[in-house]
Design goal:
Layout lengths: L1 H22 L16 H17 L9 E2 L8 E2 L7 H10 L5 H28 L2 H12 L2 H5 L12 H14 L3 H15 L3 H22 L11 H28 L2 E2 L28 H4 L6 H4 L5 H12 L6 H20 L4 E4 L2 E6 L2 H7 L13 H20 L6 H15 L13 H7 L6 E4 L5 H11 L11 E2 H6 L1 H9 L2 H6 L3 E6 L10 E9 L2 E8 L1
Parallel strand pairs: 6-8
Antiparallel strand pairs: 1-2, 3-7, 4-5, 8-10, 9-10
Length: 546
């Protein structure tokens, strides 16, 4: 009973209440607004709808990694897209009891609460301090990084499985058994179903943990010896079984037809001063506008402040290093190495200082050279989240050290607690309400499976979102990345649209309906194009042959 309270009920209650308070009055819009922006956030809604559609129509769709609902008549692979199938699978359960809007919002809340819970488990395991674990969970789930990506990156706020994998893998290297090996593999698979970036980051952090234990044990082959061999073998085999069906096709797809839509790492690197100065998504972000307003690229994305409190406790731990026993000293060093490694990698291929690109090369450039796969991301700043996680663990250890030092440190702990709250207060978060246009309702009533060219949607994001309402296959469609070969194949469609060659659209590409805000003039005597809808500035035409 007490363990259930300590390991689950207490942290869940704590992080749920904290999320509601920190983001208030967001919770009042739970039933009326999507907890996201009206840009990439709507793509996240489409992701949920698509995976839910695959789950509920297993005969029509064999996999959620490819869709024929977009880019008709060819379809598109979603291996390079930020699909986040885990959230979609969760949505397929929730939408049995609630609308998609509420399911989306519940998934967002779940991501924050569960991320805090798993980070709490990790912090508690390493520090053996409930208070330290709660601090660790707070710093991780209410980090500037997490709130920054609330603005539209449902895949990137799905952090909850990272701490769980790190915990399982850390236990695997210290107290190995078969169950932990299997748990580490399953949690890594859940990371894969959340985001490919995070899978790579977890593998890097796992490698650092193994390297640290190798140095500590003075044995580079320790995973293959004695009681480590079978648990590590279970982890390795099960990981391959779970990850290979996605990773191998992804690599093959990228080799056959490189994906378009990547980012420039020069514009998505952490600025050196952002390590010490909070960014745009901070509640008091106007105080620091002098820095983030001058950063290249998206200032919200790259001004992800990791926190003063972590820096303070890291310094405190190193000052106190000699007072620890040998095992604890090694733990501090391993987690410090993880914290520092990802902090440096987040700085990108060249150093940025105060918005200026200095040209000074950084270690990330070597990582790009030896791991070509990372070029698909081009966003080194996102590696900061692993530094925040490692720093949160160090913070928990520091809190344990302070609390064991006696009552005289209570005032200091209280001040640190206030600092943590102050530096993690987020700016107001977006919420989006969308009215359904009449033309979308009209499209919903058309025959199922007919291909639609929707040129009436005002943004590429609404173009996606409206499909979740009318459920008709679309020509084109916004995804995070598109295979270069598909882009070339669609050139003829784009040319035919530009030339008004509706016969080709009808005969070769089977397009049956066009929604547009401009009238269509037809000079082809063979084509029969009928205006079947004309309201609120939007017209829908049915294509046919006389």
């Amino acid at each position: 009973m007490l363990n259930g309270w300590k390991y689950f009920a207490l942290p869940v209650l704590f992080f749920t209440i904290s999320f509601i308070i920190l983001t208030y009055p967001l919770i009042r819009s739970f039933e009326t607004h999507f907890f996201t922006d009206d840009g990439d956030g709507l793509m996240g809604v489409w992701n949920l709808w698509w995976v839910e559609r695959v789950v509920t129509h297993p005969i029509a769709y064999s996999t959620f990694w490819h869709t024929d609902m977009l880019h008709q008549p060819f379809g598109i692979t979603l291996l390079g897209h930020t699909l986040t199938p885990f959230n979609g699978l969760l949505a397929s359960l929730l939408t049995r009891f609630m609308p998609l809007l509420e399911a989306h919002n519940l998934i967002v809340i779940f991501s924050f609460v569960m991320s805090g819970l798993t980070a709490y488990w990790l912090g508690y395991y390493v520090s053996r301090s409930v208070f330290g674990g709660l601090f660790a969970g707070w710093l991780f789930t209410f980090s500037a990084y997490h709130f920054t990506h609330f603005d539209g990156h449902l895949n990137l706020i799905t952090l909850e499985w990272i701490p769980l994998f790190v915990l399982c893998f850390y236990v695997l290297t210290n107290k190995p058994n078969g169950f932990v090996g299997a748990a580490a593999a399953v949690s890594l698979w859940l990371v894969l179903l959340s985001d490919f970036y995070y899978l790579f980051y977890c593998l890097l952090l796992g490698g650092l943990i193994v390297l640290g234990r190798m140095i500590q044990m003075k044995d580079i082959f320790f995973p293959f010896r004695n009681n480590h061999a079978i648990p590590f073998g279970i982890f390795g085999v099960l990981s391959v079984i779970l990850l290979a069906p996605v990773i191998f096709p992804l690599v093959l797809a990228a080799v056959r037809s490189p994906f378009l839509g990547g980012h420039d790492p020069a514009e998505f690197s952490l600025d050196l001063l952002s390590i010490l100065i909070p960014g745009e998504r901070w509640r008091f972000g106007e105080w620091t506008r002098f820095l983030w307003a001058n950063l290249p690229g998206d200032p919200a994305e790259i001004s992800v402040f990791p926190g003063w409190s972590i820096l303070v406790l890291v310094v405190y731990l190193f000052v106190s290093l000699k007072s620890f026993d040998d095992e604890t000293r090694w733990r501090v060093k391993i987690w410090f190495a993880c914290w520092l490694f990802f902090l440096i990698m987040a700085l990108g291929p060249v150093l940025h200082v105060g918005g200026m690109i200095t040209g000074i090369p950084m270690p990330y450039a070597l990582l790009e050279r030896f791991v070509p796969f990372i070029e698909m991301s081009g966003v080194p700043v996102r590696m900061i989240i692993m530094s925040v996680l490692a720093g949160s663990v160090l913070f928990a250890m520091g809190i344990r050290k302070l609390t064991s030092a006696g009552p005289s440190r209570k005032v200091l702990i209280a001040l640190i607690f206030l600092l943590v709250i102050f530096e993690t207060l987020p700016a107001p978060l977006p919420a989006t309400s969308i009215e359904t246009p009449g033309y979308v309702e009209f499209l919903a009533g058309l025959p199922e499976g007919e291909i639609v060219l929707d040129r009436a949607a005002s943004t590429q994001y609404l173009h996606l979102f409206y499909q979740t309402l009318h459920e008709k296959p679309l020509v084109f469609g916004y995804t995070a990345r598109i295979p270069s070969s598909l882009y070339k194949r669609e050139k003829n469609i784009r040319d035919a649209i530009g030339a008004g060659d509706y016969r080709i659209l009808w005969e070769e590409y089977r397009i049956r309906y066009i929604a547009t805000q401009e009238g269509i003039e037809v000079f082809d005597p063979v084509m029969d194009i009928q205006l079947i809808y004309d309201e609120d500035g939007v017209m829908i035409y049915r294509l046919g042959i006389r």
